[in-house]
Amino acid sequence: MEAFGRKETGEETVHGIARNQLRAFIERIERLEEEKKTLVDDIKDVYGEAKGMGFDTKILRKVISLRKQDQDERMEQEAILDTYLQALGMVPAAEEA
Amino acid sequence: MEAFGRKETGEETVHGIARNQLRAFIERIERLEEEKKTLVDDIKDVYGEAKGMGFDTKILRKVISLRKQDQDERMEQEAILDTYLQALGMVPAAEEA
Amino acid sequence: MEAFGRKETGEETVHGIARNQLRAFIERIERLEEEKKTLVDDIKDVYGEAKGMGFDTKILRKVISLRKQDQDERMEQEAILDTYLQALGMVPAAEEA
Amino acid sequence: MEAFGRKETGEETVHGIARNQLRAFIERIERLEEEKKTLVDDIKDVYGEAKGMGFDTKILRKVISLRKQDQDERMEQEAILDTYLQALGMVPAAEEA
Q: InterPro entries from the xrefs (chains A, B, C, D) (predicted)?
């Protein structure tokens, strides 16, 4: 499985490492990481813009996160949470069924 | 600073929230998050490919991280680390200067 | 500010590092980290026990997190979230005031 | 497996939740979390103290992390890293064997 020691392929090696191959992998990863960083900055910018228009960015993040969840599952989780909070006296109890 | 309650602009509002504006922000963020996820997957794929060619991906990550650092700073940090490790007997001591 | 090179104190030094002092710091940190690890395991065990009694651990974590927040702030955040979700059609709209 | 609806045990329930049991779990977790927070602060304090004596805390963290690793494994990882860095021209090349 080792890709080292391929002097036979004409690839220059250092201590048996295919130098160009290593360099190519590193550069591909760095390029992708750079693109990712740009996107992360873009996302931050959009939140900044939304904030400038009066939206609450913490709540926006929560909305984004909720939209990834299945709606039925989310409703069910909310229902269980309410039950726990009521049992702990952390919210006004709904009427007993 | 609040962007709410702009019935005057013709924007449909719900409880004073500019519905279309909110939706636009959410959709922009979700699109960017989707692109980011694709890049994260791409990066994972390149590491996978490198691993398939015999490279050690943990070390590759270390190399990527070291390349982001200033070389002089890196050398200096390594030197301090060596001194600490020698003081703790964790590496063979170099000759005393 | 440097505490190195204190040969005058009788402390054995390696490359100017006070060996015993370094060792003492390392050992104190490792002992505390060990205690922390034990607590992290204990917490995991309690969640496991709660799960065994039929509680939903994900919701328990949410409850713990909510209890750290100020109740008024929490209620306000919930209200804003609801408004956003309604604007996006993600929950049945409450009656317009 | 559900521990709810145990009216028969005399435990007060809210919507079928054993209120005291829930409260007990929450309190045990909160107490452990509190102890954990104290330890995290203690660890931070020790690093602060070490820094005050002239030690480099970033390097101390690295030392702690290295001590958790197996020494042979660590040496081997360092050797592979060196080979990669040499192949990339990031360190002066050792003599070719």
A: GapR-like (IPR018753), GapR-like_DNA-bd (IPR046367)
CA pair distance D44, D52, nearest whole angstrom: 12
Among the partner residues B19, B83, B87, nearest to C87 by beta-carbon distance: B19
- pTM, two decimals, is 0.77
CA distance A93 to B13: 32
Rounded CA-CA distance D56/B21 in Å is: 49
Shortest CA distance from C68: residue in chain D: D30
Structure tokens at B15: 């409880």
Element (H, E) at A13: strand A13-14
Is C25–D49 a contact, with Cβ atoms under 8 angstroms apart? yes
Beta carbons of C77 and A59 less than 8 Å apart: yes
Per-residue pLDDT at A81 exceeds 70? yes
- Cα distance between residue A74 and residue C60, in whole Å: 15
D29 touches chain C (CB under 8 A): yes
Cβ under 8 Å to D: C residues 47-86: 47, 49-50, 52-55, 60, 63-64, 67
Q: What SS3 class is residue D76?
A: helix
- pLDDT, tens only, D43-96: 999 999 999 999 999 999 999 999 999 889 988 999 999 999 999 988 766 554
Asked if B3 has any chain A CB less than 8 Å from its own CB, the reply is: yes
Residue C7 has pLDDT above 60, yes or no: no
Q: Would the pLDDT of A13 be above 60? A: yes
- Using a 10 angstrom Cβ sphere, with 0-12 exposed, 13-18 middle and 19 or more buried, the burial of residue D27 is exposed
Residue D90 forms contact with C (CB below 8 Å): no
